[in-house]
Model the fold of this input.
Amino acid sequence: MRPSHIAPRPDFPPPASAPPPLRLLVADDNPVVRAGLTALLSGRTDTTVVAEASDGREAYEAALRHRPDVILLDVRMPGVDGISALPHLVRLAPVMMLTYSHETETVREALRLGAGGYLVHGEFTTEQLVRAVRDVREGRPHVTPGAARALLTSLREGAPAHELSNTPELMADSPPSTLSQLQPSVGQSFRSRFRLSTREAEIMDFIASGMSNQQIAAACFISEKTVKNHINRIFAKLQTTTRSQATAKWLGVA
Done:
């Protein structure tokens, strides 16, 4: 005999919703870098930029207003620089240093003052940046090879050899296999390898800041057709096919 009733099926839990995007504050005195990072990180589902700042004081005020999950902080900025602002900012949110500077003293001082990580432009991809930001929020430090090398040099100069075996924790979450190739010359901008002309570099900066062809033409006093010709040559040199790909390479996050 069939049972008089069929037991109801157990309710399956609803699918887990995606976590809210990480809310980031970008502090850098270079408007091109700020605009490029904002465009890259706000165009994703897992991160968004809630505020920008051009120096340490603006970063502190913006952090008070917006309460970001993580602060991306440059080192050298006019007014209040990143190192000076760092002790105040770490009280408000985890801080990731994101800069072109990898001098030994700067790296050591930033980490001593509470930075949760130290990333050097040109040594990471967008995905690695996002992973590092998430890890820093959870208290897991990240450094890219240039910063790690500077830190290791400092440790070797100031500690006996037998103590060095206990120091690589900062490097553990950034294995060399997951990091982009180191640049051949520490003192030379990684952008020089693209071999853009002065005009092409200027236009690439405009592209990274989010300007349209029409806006670039007006800023450079050239025709839109000339802008398009420059962009075609830029894409060929950067080995990209879209503005977002070119921007990522130009900012050192691809």
In short: Residues 224-238 form the longest helix (15 residues). The radius of gyration is 22 Å. The CA atoms of residues 111 and 117 lie 7 Å apart. The longest strand covers residues 47-53.
